Automatic annotation (TrEMBL):
It comes from Gossypium raimondii (Peruvian cotton). Transmembrane segments: none annotated. ATP binds at K133. Residues 95-387 form the Protein kinase domain. One of its GO terms (molecular function) is protein serine/threonine kinase activity. Gene3D superfamilies: Phosphorylase Kinase, domain 1 (3.30.200.20), Transferase(Phosphotransferase) domain 1 (1.10.510.10). This is non-specific serine/threonine protein kinase.
Length: 459
């Protein structure tokens, strides 16, 4: 099932950029009807002089491709490369379906290879694998989303944000051509690795890798919220927008719905409600008031997806299990049942204590009142503590036991541990054949050179 982006409605909607409020004050307000249609637009049209130029210029009209390129050139803080349409058409072998790696309301994403200058080798050109997003040429809203991505990815720079290499903006006989060229993320998205149900499923993500991905994504959001000259609210944080590189480092992608946060001294931005069903903060859906804490809510949802291996909304399950947050509620407060919600594909190879702590952190992010939700920088710190504790537990488990330890003492320790309710983390145990072999030996010591640890489930 592919999760789509929608406009939400609660009777009345708001146009983008309509007001910026602090406390209860409203600068300006217009209301307009919004419908449940796929969202492709978030570029602001605010004329408020207190807003950044990123919002006010993103819906600007361009009489020609030349004037449009001039506008983009002024924004190339990251020295974006300008590609020709012919270059990108050649790079994707004429936008071959065989190279298609993604598809959505914005258009299609293809894998390709472009020539880049290698300064280390004397300026010689070499091939670089990239992901090329081609905007659907029908509709101005997609065009605004495209501009939004260039606006923000052209100036942000962080290891946990996907890198925009360049763009193409041309008009030809077929119409407007708008493309974006990104670094290629070979391990696809977190959704693909964690939630995809394919005929040939990918190996499950190890528990420690899940924690690392969560921390990487949190760092990306913390940078957007707290570390730039202006605040940026991602507004569509979900597993499909978290991409994984060769080493499973996570990077946020798809800034089409991103929106600049309120200026200093103001509490929120009132705007049309867009996002993905299942991830959007309830107060944002109900009021249209957008804050960075809306992203924090979405992060909490993703944390539960990492714990459970389930989607935020899964229509194919029984009705009582379709909404993830409702399904986990009875289990998270019962220590005897908590292990029942943990992703079964982990097959017990995880630390139950850290899983509970991750769920506790998710609950903090999902507080009904947005104000007490933690900032993303605080989330990064808490995830760091969970990872450190988990790593130390794994290290203590994997340490070899001295050759002079009594086998009976080791067996008693393992028996005591196995009686603990819901323990699913890795434990070294004797293989059955080793135990039988030991019983037949006259010496009560274990020859550690001739055994291998096995895994057992204890629930």
């Amino acid at each position: 099932m592919v999760m789509k982006c929608f406009h939400f409605t609660n009777g009345e909607g708001r146009d983008e950029g309509e007001d910026v409020s602090g406390g209860g004050g409203v600068v300006s307000r217009m209301s307009s009807k919004v419908t449940w249609t796929r969202s492709l637009s978030v570029a602001s049209s605010s004329a408020d002089t207190r807003r950044s130029e990123f919002d006010s210029e993103s819906t600007r009209d361009f009489a020609s491709a030349a004037s449009f390129c001039e506008f983009l050139t002024q924004r190339r803080a990251n020295d974006l490369r300008v590609f020709t349409f012919a270059e990108l058409k050649s790079a994707t072998r004429g936008f071959s379906r065989a190279l298609l790696i993604g598809e959505g309301g914005f258009g299609c994403v293809y894998r390709g290879a472009v020539d880049v200058s290698d300064e280390v080798n004397g300026g010689r050109y070499s091939k670089l694998d990239v992901a090329i997003k081609q905007l659907n040429r029908h509709g101005f809203q997609g065009h605004k989303e495209w501009i939004n991505e260039v606006n923000f990815l052209g100036v942000v720079n962080h290891p946990n944000l996907v890198r925009l290499i360049g763009y193409c903006a041309e008009d030809d006989e077929r119409g407007i051509q708008r493309l974006l060229v990104y670094e290629l993320m070979r391990n696809k998205s977190l959704e693909d690795r964690l939630l995809a149900r394919t005929p040939l499923p990918l190996p499950p993500l190890p528990w420690v890798t899940r924690l690392s991905i969560a921390q990487d994504a949190a760092r990306g959001l913390a940078y957007l919220h707290e570390e730039m000259d202006f605040q940026l609210i991602f507004r569509d944080f979900k597993t499909s927008n978290i991409l994984l590189d060769d080493d499973f480092n996570a990077k946020l992608s798809d800034f089409g719905l991103a929106r600049q946060g309120p200026p200093e001294g103001f509490g929120h931005v009132s705007t049309a409600v867009v996002g993905t069903v299942g991830y959007t903060a309830p107060e944002y859906v109900q009021t249209g008031r957008l804050t960075a804490k809306s992203d924090v809510w979405s992060f909490g949802v993703v944390l539960y997806e990492l714990v459970t291996g389930r989607r935020a909304l899964e229509r194919n399950l029984p009705r009582s299990e379709q909404k993830l947050l409702e399904w986990v509620r009875p289990y998270i407060s019962d220590s005897k049942k908590f292990h029942l919600i943990v992703d079964p594909r982990l097959e017990g190879q995880y630390c139950l204590k850290s899983a509970r702590k991750l769920a506790s952190l998710a609950n903090k992010c999902l507080m009904k009142n947005p104000k007490p939700r933690p900032k993303m920088s605080e989330v990064v710190e808490m995830l760091g503590n969970i990872i450190s504790e988990t790593s130390s537990q794994y290290e203590s488990i994997s340490q070899p036991i001295g050759e002079n330890e009594d086998v009976k003492e080791e067996s008693e320790v393992e028996t005591e541990e196995s009686t603990k309710q819901g323990h699913n983390y890795l434990k070294k145990v004797f293989e059955i054949k080793e135990i039988i072999s030991l019983r037949n030996r006259s010496v009560g010591k274990l020859d550690w050179r001739n055994w291998t640890p096995g895994l057992v489930r204890t629930w």
